[in-house]
Amino acid sequence: MWGLNEEAQKYLKKGFPEYNLIIALKEGPKEIKELNIENLPIALNWAKKNGWIKLEDKKISLTKEGHAALEKKYHLMAAIEKIAKSGDCEPETLEILKRRNLVVEVKEQPKERKCMFNIFKNIFKAPKASGEIAQLTPEDIIKKRWKTAGFRKYDVSAPAPRAWPGKVHPYLQFLDKIKDRLVSLGFEEVSGPLLETNFWNCDALFMPQDHPARGIHDIFFVKDPKHGTLPNA
């Protein structure tokens, strides 16, 4: 859907500059200084492109096509009138108006929806009838059954599905992701005790003795048990 910009709306009221120009030349050739046309440069440019005018002896006069154009309505004027009414026109003419930056695309506004709050507000005000509705359906709303139907009261003491609002800690999510990657590469997942010996934590990983990770700030040691056992070589 298309609409007219400010310039096109002005043309809709006063006419296109090029058409006003050939109207002014209807009486005969004139010099440029004699022409009192609004937007004269635009008028000269498009009148020349349309083949309506010619320059002879420093005077502008109408061509055969220019005289013929005066006998009928300008097709661009008919196009902007149509756009003003229906928002569209012929594709070829629309392309010309686009190149001249006379039209703007207008997005259709979404249809207004009925406020659900008002619908449900009226539901609870509706008079009760025989029978009760336990759950409101789209069909009940469309056929307006809610106006006369009775609704079952909401039982707050009825059992409901248990909700678990918590979720896995981000660090544990990260560990699970790393574990899945390593297992997919061929590593095997094994379980170990809560307390691990320094051998498995450091030596088995070929960690140097002076590595910072062996420091007291990165490893927690316990007093009991003080020593662990290693598998037989």
Question: Can you give a write-up of this model?
Answer:
The protein has 233 residues and is mainly α. The chain folds into three domains: 2-105, Orthogonal Bundle (Arc Repressor Mutant, subunit A), CATH 1.10.10; 116-151, no CATH class; 189-233, no CATH class. The protein is built from ten helices and six strands. The strands form three sheets. A two-stranded antiparallel ribbon has the order 1-4. A two-stranded antiparallel ribbon has the order 2-3. Strands 5-6 form a two-stranded parallel sheet. Helix 2 (17-24) crosses helix 3. It is elongated, with a radius of gyration of 42 Å. The chain starts with a strand and ends in a 32-residue tail after the last helix.
Features of the shown structure:
8% strand, 3 domains, two-stranded antiparallel sheet, elongated, two-stranded antiparallel ribbon, Arc Repressor Mutant, subunit A, 233 residues, mainly alpha, 38% helix
Number of helices: 10
How many independent structural domains?
Answer: 3
**SSE order, one letter for each helix or strand:** EHHHEEHHHEHEHEHH
Instruction: Kindly state the percentage of residues in helix.
Output: 25-40%
Task: Outline the low-pLDDT stretches.
Answer: 126-130
Strand order of the largest sheet: 1-4
Q: Profile the largest sheet.
A: 2 strands, antiparallel
Rg from C-alpha positions? Answer: 42 Å
- The total of beta strands comes to 6
CATH topology of the largest domain: Arc Repressor Mutant, subunit A
| Name given to the CATH architecture of the largest domain | Orthogonal Bundle
- Structural class category: mainly alpha
What is the highest CATH level, the class of the largest domain? Answer: Mainly Alpha
Averaging pLDDT over every residue, what do you get? 84
Beta-strand proportion: 5-15%
Distance between the termini: 83 Å
Shape: elongated
